[in-house]
Amino acid sequence: MNQKIKRKKSLWRRMQENRKILAAESTVLPLLLGIVIFICWETQILHGILHTDTFTLPLPSRIANIMGDNVNKIMTNVWATVFVALIGLAAGSLLGYVIAVIAALFPKWGSSGVTIVAAFNAIPIVALAPVMTNWTKGVSEDANTRSMVAKILVVMIVCMANMSINAYRGLTEVQPFSEELMQSLVAGKKEVLVKLRIPNSIPYIFTALKVAVPSSVISALVSEYFAEYIIGVGRQIRENIVLAQYSTAWAYIVAACLIGIIMYAVTMIAENILLKKHA
Amino acid sequence: MKKLRNAKWLPMLVWIGGMIALWEVGALVVASTKRTPENVLPHLYQIIAAIFDNKPVNGGQTAIMVVLGSAGKTILRAFYGFAAGTILGFMLALIMKLSRIAEKLIFPYLMLVQMIPILGMAPIILSITGDINKSRIVIAAILTFYPVATNTLAGFNAVEHEKHELMHSYAASKFTVYTKVLIPYSVPYFFTGLKISAPMAITASILVDTLQGDGGLGSMLSQSLKHGMSIYVFWLIVFFSAFIGIFSSKLMGMIEKLFSPQKRKKRGNGV
Asked: Do B246 and A256 touch (CB under 8 A)?
């Protein structure tokens, strides 16, 4: 009587319920798409779709060749860009966090201060970069150092705005019950900050970094356009296109993409390690 | 009520006042030490005076005419790209929600696009499309579409399980589930995406302007930097582009309020 009527599941259904297949799907499918794109590119089908030629969009094999030939020159420019992006990221994030902590200690004045700092985020880098180049004219006799400082300042401002708004949220959006607990234990402002607010803000720091890392690379690249001294991956892309050396420009584009991807991957790994320890 | 208002606006005003004071002090210092202070840090009143100055700076146009004229061009182009990117991003999020296979195919690439410095690729996109207007729209669209797509998808996925179960118990069709539950629920997330991408679209448009001189804020910016015209044009453009960058983001917030008066206070930020 109570016998259940069991129907055999279809293969499709079973595939959808199998965890292993699901996990495999999420790596195999994107990989397949990647291979399809690569083949389209190498066989010039992509060129047909985009109405372009192998001169402006060189084949991947040619780009790889050029990268191999110019390894030293590309690396010099990559380091220049990475240096600017990293220093700017570190200094800007630190400054942003300090601003957030100060703002969290004095919320009445702090919250509007953070709003103003956050508004810097919406200022186009294109407007910021030439101003910084102008302001740093007197910093050093050496054009390279001078441009470096200007570029770092641009990256710093972008990262600072981002970090301060996220960290402020992390520092203030604490669980109400834990705040009450701290109050009932007559904890001082400093203790609440160190024991409750700062630990609470750590996931928010990573939220900020996940946005700030790619944008630090972008700001570094764009500020290179306006810098005095010709160095950096972004500037090389532009210079090579002006000279109509598209394959070299593409080699630098690949380098720029790799910088972005590697820096993001490092952030993700750091987040995984640190947040796991924390939880 | 009056007290509350005071408490809210006073600190903001003081901060803005403080920044103006800081700028002016800087300008005073620069004026006494540099030979050409207007290149480094002019007084704010000098910049404001440049707005009303009716001395022609470029082909019979006054400074403010140059700025507003080129800003109009830049904003319009940014808007086309922004609109295209928004529609594309929303459609993509919808497709990814509808089909699991599509999500698995596309989502890793969506993350990848986020890490690739598209703005650095601006010159090459210009040479692929061959047309400056097209490339501007393409770049603004690419920059817009991924924040919109990822945030909207996060909104779709944030719908609670109970809501799906409720709709299931009503025997609601897929279409109804989407129009009544998923899409309305994703609106705040969608606007989060728009708020991120609006200033980016404008930045992209200005940047592409600098690559080729055919009007637009960017090309005026580089011309005035090379002293092709009054340096105050440069300062006006800097302030104006900062203003439209901030304003575009605020505008999205205003439109959001218009569309969702019951705006949820608590929401994730899908990034």
From this structure: no
Check CB contact under 8 Å for A122 and B245.
Answer: yes
What are residue B50's phi and psi, to 5 degrees? -65, -25
pLDDT on residue A154? 92
Domain boundaries, chain B: 1-41, 58-268
Q: What is the pTM of this model?
A: 0.80
**Boundaries of every domain in chain A:** 11-50, 69-278
Phi, psi (5° rounding) for residue B118?
A: -60, -40
Contacts (Cβ under 8 Å, ≥6 apart) of B38: B46, B231, B232
On chain B, the residues whose CB falls within 8 A of the CB of A56 are 124, 127-128
Question: What does pLDDT average to over chain B?
Answer: 79
B214, B132 contact by CB (below 8 A)? yes
Q: Chain B 127-166, CB below 8 Å of chain A: which residues? A: 127-128
Q: Is any Cβ of chain A less than 8 angstroms from the Cβ of B98?
A: no
Contact residues on chain A for B211, CB-CB shorter than 8 A: 238
Give A128's contacts (C-beta < 8 A, 6+ positions apart). Answer: A154, A157, A158, A223
Top-level class of domain B58-268: mainly alpha
Amino acid at A65: N
Residue A267, number of CB atoms within 10 A of its CB: 17
What is the residue-averaged pLDDT of chain A? 83
- CA-based diameter of chain A, in Å? 94
Q: Say whether A130 and B128 touch across the interface (CB within 8 A).
A: no
The CATH architecture that domain A69-278 belongs to is: Orthogonal Bundle (1.10)
List chain A residues with pLDDT less than 50: none
Distance from CA of A116 to the nearest CA of B (A): 8
Residues of A in contact with B115 (CB under 8 A): 214, 257, 260-261, 263-264
Which ipTM was obtained for this model?
Answer: 0.76
The token pair at B62 is: 């006054």
E strand or H helix at B62, and its extent?
strand B61-62
B61-90 per-position pLDDT tens digit: 677 777 888 888 888 888 998 999 999 999
Chain A interface, best mutation among B119, B125, B146, B247, by max A CB count within 10 A: B119
Contact yes or no for A119 and B246 at CB 8 A? yes
Q: What Cα–Cα distance (Å) separates residue A11 from each residue in A14, B100, B236?
A: 5, 17, 66
Contact at CB, B104 and A109, closer than 8 angstroms? no
Convert the pLDDT of each residue in A103-158 to its tens digit: 888 877 888 888 888 777 777 788 788 888 888 877 777 888 888 899 999 999 98
* pLDDT reported for residue A88: 94
Residues of chain A with C-beta less than 8 angstroms from the C-beta of B107: 30
The residue of B15, B82, B112, B116 whose CB has the most chain A CBs within 10 angstroms, and thus the best one to mutate to test that interface, is B116
| B122: nearest Cα among B107, B141, B146 | B141
